[in-house]
Amino acid sequence: MAKQFNFQLQFSSESGTERENLVSHMSNIIETSGSIVRFWTDKTDDDSYINFNAVVEKPDEFWTDMKARPGGFPPAGIAPRLIATCEGDHGWDDYLLLYHFDRRLKLDALVQGGAK
Questions:
Q1: What's the fold here for domain 3-115?
Q2: Rounded CA gap, 40 and 48, in Å?
Q3: How do residues 47-65 score in pLDDT, each as one tens digit?
Q4: What secondary structure does DSSP assign to 44-96, as a single string?
Q5: Are strands 110-111 and 114-115 parallel, antiparallel or unpaired?
Q6: What is the tens place of the pLDDT at every residue in 68-82?
Q7: Which of 35, 39, 104, 105 has the smallest set of CB atoms within 10 Å of its CB?
Q8: Rounded to the nearest 5°, which phi and psi values hold at 84?
């Protein structure tokens, strides 16, 4: 069953070029992770963050591929700025928090066939 992932990349004091590089790198990571049905981005008017949205056919395989990337996921330059979520069994009403730059937050697990 297809599910939507959202990756929010937050910015603070990065220059325009630094932001462009981070956005390009994050887009490349997502777009090369396979089983994507649809991919798009949206950002705030004040450029404080950008959302990367991907609908994927096999969410568990997609997330496994993301985490298995060489160098790990998220990469060091992106990790302190990233929040990663996925729709749960009931859409966004029970979304899964898969990664958060605030390491004190409890993360959910995405397993084959649903949340854990």
A1: Alpha-Beta Plaits (3.30.70)
A2: 17
A3: 889 999 999 999 999 999 8
A4: -TT-SEEEEEEEES-HHHHHHHHHTSTT-SS-TTTGGGEEEEEEETTEEEEEE
A5: antiparallel
A6: 888 888 998 899 999
A7: 104
A8: -120, 130
User: For the chain, which residues make up each domain, given as ranges?
Assistant: 3-115
How distant, in Å, are the alpha carbons of 23, 24, 27, 30, 94 from that of 53?
Answer: 13, 14, 10, 9, 17
- Model confidence, pTM: 0.89
> The tokens 């462009």 sit on which residue?
20
- Distance, in Å, from the CA atom of 47 to the CA atom of 49, rounded to the nearest integer, reads 5
* Residue 43 amino acid letter: K
Cα 111 to Cα 92, 96, 106, 115: the distances in Å are 17, 11, 16, 6
Q: Which amino acid makes up residue 24?
A: S
